[in-house]
Amino acid sequence: MRSSSISRATAETSISLDFAIDGSGETDIQTGVGFFDHMLTLFTKHGLFDLKVACDGDIEVDQHHTVEDIGIVLGQAFYKSIGTKEGIDRYATVSIPMDEALSTVSIDISGRPFFVYHVEGLKDKVGQFDTELVEEFFQAFVSNAKVTLHINLQYGKNTHHIIESIFKAFGRALSAASKINPDVKGVPSTKGLL
Questions:
Q1: How many C-beta atoms surround the C-beta of residue 34 within 10 A?
Q2: Distance (Å, rounded) from C-alpha 124 to C-alpha 129?
Q3: Residue 110 carries which DSSP code?
Q4: 137-176 pLDDT per residue, tens
Q5: In sequence order, which residues have a C-beta less than 8 Å from that of residue 40 and are 6 or more positions away?
Q6: Could you give the count of Cα atoms lying within 13 Å of 187 in the half-sphere of its Cβ?
Q7: Is 24 helix (H, G, I), strand (E, B) or coil?
Q8: Residue 9: is its pLDDT beyond 90?
Q9: Dihedral sign for Cα atoms in the order 134, 145, 177, 192
Q10: Which of 106, 48, 49 is nearest to 77 (CA)?
Q11: Which of 18, 3, 21 is closest to 179 using CA atoms?
């Protein structure tokens, strides 16, 4: 099974995370940020990963350190779990509707961190969640997972629906790109290395 466990402690957060690419959608997520727990649960369920996260963060300050640091650790866990990348599909693009919202996520498990985020019109908050942290989470993930990730909102009005469509599409795209394809021999690159 392609999986890993990572712990990370700073003056701002203490995180323990278990992640499995070849899972079944099992979750145990306790970040202290309710809406973020919901989004990570959607990501896991729709990507068919397994994810266990426990975070003790300085949410009395704000949610920034918790959300960003979980992005860091999840990215590290994915990078460790994907291993040599032999036999993977490597690329995926998924569009997911959530009522009136439609988001498209494209991934290249490239070994090169690059992030494009075209999402306009979010309200500042969903409940107590600061929506600017969506971008921060994905930037942290990309930098540590060493993937290329493009997130494009096609359209949408409801901020909750928009963010939900993004996390569902992210789960599906990451899962599809990570899949082992028996037709792929070795690493899917003319360079022979990803």
A1: 12
A2: 8
A3: -
A4: 999 999 999 999 999 999 999 999 999 999 999 999 999 9
A5: 27, 29, 31, 51, 53, 70, 167
A6: 13
A7: coil
A8: yes
A9: positive
A10: 49
A11: 21
Exposed, middle or buried, 60 (CB in 10 Å: 0-12/13-18/19+)?
exposed
Cα–Cα distances in angstroms (integers) from residue 129 to residues 39, 48, 135, 159, 164, in the given order: 11, 25, 13, 11, 13
- pTM attached to this predicted model: 0.97
Q: pLDDT band for 72, please (50, 70, 90 cuts).
A: very high
Helix boundaries (H) for the chain: 34-47, 64-82, 133-145, 159-178
What is the rounded CA–CA span in Å between residue 102 and residue 165? 7
Percent of the chain with pLDDT over 70: 100
Number of Cβ within a 10 Å radius of residue 25 = 15
Question: Cα separation of 182 and 91, whole Å?
Answer: 15
d(CA 142, CA 135): 11
Kindly tell me the burial class for residue 191, based on how many C-beta atoms sit within 10 Å of its own C-beta (0-12, 13-18, 19 or more): exposed
Are the beta carbons of 147 and 91 closer than 8 angstroms?
no
- Dihedrals phi, psi of 85, to nearest 5 degrees: 70, 10
Q: How far apart are CA 192 and CA 101, in angstroms?
A: 39
Give the pLDDT score at 192: 84
